[in-house]
Amino acid sequence: MKLSGKAIRRSLGAATLAALLVALAAPWWNLDRYARRIQAGLEKELRRRVSIGRVRLEVFRGPGFSLGDVVIYDDPRMGREPLAYVTALEARVALSSLWTGRLEFASLTLVEPSVNLTKPATGAWNFEDLLERTLTGSAPSGAFPRILVRSGRINFKLGDVKSAFYVTNADLDLTPPRAPGEAWNVRFSGEPARTDRPAQGLGRLAGRGRWTPGERLQLALELERSYLEEISALLAGRDLGLRGQVTSRALVAGPVSDLEITGRAQLRGFRRWDLMPAWGADLEFDYRGRLDLPGQRLTLEASPLKDSPLRVRLRMFDYLSQPRWGVLAAFQDLPLESAGDWPRVAGLSLPEGVQLKGVLSGGVGYSPASGLRGALLLREARLAAPGWGTLACARAPLRVDRGELRFGPSTLEGARKTSLTVEGAWAWERAGLSLKLAGKALPIAAQGGALLPGLEPVPVLKDCRGGAWGGALRYERRAGKAGRWNGRIQVSEAEMVLPGLASPLRLGMAEMRLTAEGAAVVVLHARLGGATVEGDFRYEESGARPHRLRLSVGELEAAELERLLAPTLDRRRGLLARALRLRRPPAPDWLRDRRLEGEFQVASLRFNGAPVAGPVRGRLKWDGLRVEIAGLEARLAEGALTGRLVADLKAGAPVYRLAGALGPWAGNEARWSAEGFLETSGSGEELLENLRAEGWALGRSVEFAPGQEFDWLAARFSLHWAGRAPRLKIERLEAVQGGEIFRGEGRALPDGRLRIELSGTRRQLHLLATLWPLRLEPAAP
């Protein structure tokens, strides 16, 4: 019977609808009664015992089954742990099964599996026997299914110990050969990681190629952008302090026991962890190496610097069991100039204006077991720095051992017999540093006490400018503590800038001693302004007054002394500010914090070129804004002055108070003495204008006329300045002559002399007195 076109279309539509209904309903069909047959088919293909959970029919993606909760057990010789735990296994049935009646699979897709690749102590990996059929032809061509892994985790197990390394987010595609003996097509990608670190892998590692089991492997590999801190954490189990991003492409070819590796890598932003990204270096380099997959041995070699004798070698062993690896950077006559930005990237950049040249040879290696170790030799070194000139060194040995860099002893020499011998050790992980320095005729001009970059300034030397130093120094710095200097040095022809002095102290020669307790200038020969200065100084940090000194000064002009001390004594601002009585500026911190004591002696104190006292000596105590000179002694032409002088520096101008005694001195054929106090403030002429004094004066054998004298004469006096003239007032004057007692007072005359009126029991005396020199003479009534 001939069907019409309309009937044919209806038949096809009905068949299509039926197929569609079957396909839509297939996932809900319960095929558990076929589970044993499917399980048997899988066990035949995989040569392993298999257990499966639910079974569902798949139609849309090809005839096959979706299996849930699948466990693929391993050969008992490999241990108790299964080969794989599979969340879902999609098994595609081979088309040949439709007419042969035998259940065979075209592909097996493992979704989110956890796969254990195991190698016993003796024997092959647990997956190798799965592939034997493709080598020996023991199965029909194409009988072995295509194996796919999606979003899996691949673990590695050696003997009974599971490796800390695994691959996460793994995708794998193994396509069997078409004929026995041909190669497998391999495609894979994943993120290497380790179990003792957070679940974060490296950048994705992908590869594709061909593999002839037991013979040859050929793969093209690509490492997506990965961070150095994650690479170091993967290899060493911890962050090694390197930062940067790495990408790489490589070709691996050869027998699996001797694979040749060639590739190219790009490094972006390479730097030490504590440096900002702006300090990173970018470079691209080729590398070569060998890989023994069964023996777990890898070697790589590269030259990161273009056209450079620098070579970097990586060696790794047992990387799946107990990883042992090491990196070696080898140099052979490497000019430092060719290093470019690499010293800066490593955190070893020199200060601005400092240059180091030379040729470097040797090697430095790192391994987790022994740390950083190596030996280097810097030849023909030349160090140039502002103020130092150029220092040259023929040979400078360097040694690296377990986190410590040891260098020297090395002697650098410069012009004019300048030399510096350096020896020390730098423990960068413990932030420790020890140095031995021996210098000769080294300039101070540019250092300001900081002999080497990053070190604390040398006490006392930090205040020097110009000149040169020589001697021996030691420096020690431990983690969390400030570094300390000790040793003994000599400084010559330098200027020492001291707070509060208008002129620097010009050192002719000074010998300094540094200890853990402080610093000392044990010998000092210098000039301050126009005066010569000798003495010693010491600083003891733990003392109530840390600064202690002894000074011996030659001739000193009073005006020069006032000029030198002006920044300390007079902090007033300009004339307008004083006239408007604006608020005075606060005392500087260095003055408030000054704590000093000592002794001084001035050989000769002069005023307008004429000597007025000498020697002058005393004991000094300086506590912030209060200065005290106790035990003050001054030899005057007429006698000796002793007392105690206090200077108050709280106001803008100093306030002085002197309590003391003067005498005895000769005058009017008599011997005089006086005691009392004196107060004044300001500077220059202000000292006279603001002067006020009170006290008692006593004279013995005072002659007031030929053949006439007092046995003794005593009086209370007060003195102040009016305009530019002194005003002296005499009160409670008493005198004795031959048992007769006289009492009276004195008054100042316009010409500056004193008129003294005395009344005794029988008579009155009228006298005129001049103060300087002190003389009495009769006056008309």
Strand content: over 45%
Number of contiguous helices: 11
> What is the share of helical residues?
10-25%
Low-pLDDT residue intervals, each spanning 5 or more residues: 14-26
N→C terminal distance: 181 Å
Judged by helices, strands and strand pairing, the structural class is: mainly beta
Indicate the mean pLDDT.
82
User: How many DSSP-defined strands?
Assistant: 42
Radius of gyration: 50 Å
The general outline is rod-shaped
Major sheet attributes: 42 strands, mixed
What labels would you give this structure?
781 residues, mainly beta, rod-shaped
General description of the model:
By secondary structure, the chain is mainly beta. 10% of the residues lie in helices and 57% in strands. It has 11 helices and 42 strands. The chain has a 42-stranded mixed β-sheet that branches. The chain is rod-shaped and about 165 Å long. It starts with a helix and ends with a strand.
How do the strands and helices of this protein lay out in sequence?
Blueprint lengths: L4 H21 L9 H12 L3 E2 L3 E4 L5 E9 L11 E10 L3 H4 L4 E15 L12 H5 L9 E13 L2 E15 L8 E11 L10 E8 L3 E12 H9 L5 E13 L4 E14 L8 E12 L4 E6 L8 E7 L6 E12 L6 H4 L9 E13 L3 E15 L3 E13 L3 E9 L5 E9 L4 E12 L20 E2 L2 E10 L6 E13 L8 E11 L2 E11 L2 E10 L6 E11 H7 L1 H4 L5 H5 L9 H4 L2 E13 L2 E14 L2 E11 L3 E9 L6 E13 L2 E12 L4 H4 L2 E14 L2 E15 L2 E13 L2 E9 L5 E6 L4 E8 L2 E5 L3
Parallel strand pairs: 5-6, 29-30
Antiparallel strand pairs: 1-3, 2-3, 3-4, 4-5, 6-7, 7-8, 8-9, 9-10, 10-11, 11-12, 12-13, 13-14, 14-15, 15-16, 16-17, 17-18, 18-19, 19-20, 20-21, 21-22, 22-24, 23-25, 24-25, 25-26, 26-27, 27-28, 28-29, 30-31, 31-32, 32-33, 33-34, 34-35, 35-36, 36-37, 37-38, 38-39, 39-40, 40-41, 41-42
